[in-house]
Amino acid sequence: MIRLMGAVLIIAGCGGMGLCAAARLEGRVRDLGELAAGLDTLRRELGWRLSPLPDGLYAAGRALRGPAADFFTRCAQRAGAPDGQPFQEVWRAELDAAPLRLKPEDRALLDRLGPVLGRYDGGSQRQALEEGAAGLRALQGAAADERSRLGRVYGVLGITAGLFAAIVLF
Length: 170
Fold this sequence. Notes:
Elements: H1 2-47, H2 53-63, H3 67-79, H4 87-97, H5 104-111, H6 122-169
Helix pairs in contact: 1-2, 1-3, 1-6, 2-3, 3-4
């Protein structure tokens, strides 16, 4: 009986690891979509309403949920702080600190926005944000393809590895 319970626990543990890997893929798709929506909100605030950068970032944070909302809200808090730190450094630091499930190419695309925001006129910022959101949506489409292709594979591999380990150990 104990051997059977051990085998079930091994199979469940390995299956859970596979499902966690699949969940990370889903999280990346969700985070990319939220960030793109946040950039769209920021584009409207800065380009059309001509809001100051901290107000636009707060609006983007309020329009979202999850880690992306926290990212925009923390950027807004630090952008409005009187410490005089350049916004590019604030953007990069908050991007590194945010618990977003992004790949290096996702972060590189977002990192290119830091030097533009709050530094140029509304039209230039609007264009950079539009290009950034389009790039994030393209990455989101590729991530969704990867999720649909690899998500099931990870789940099946986890359960198969658990079955194999249970057979070898018992």
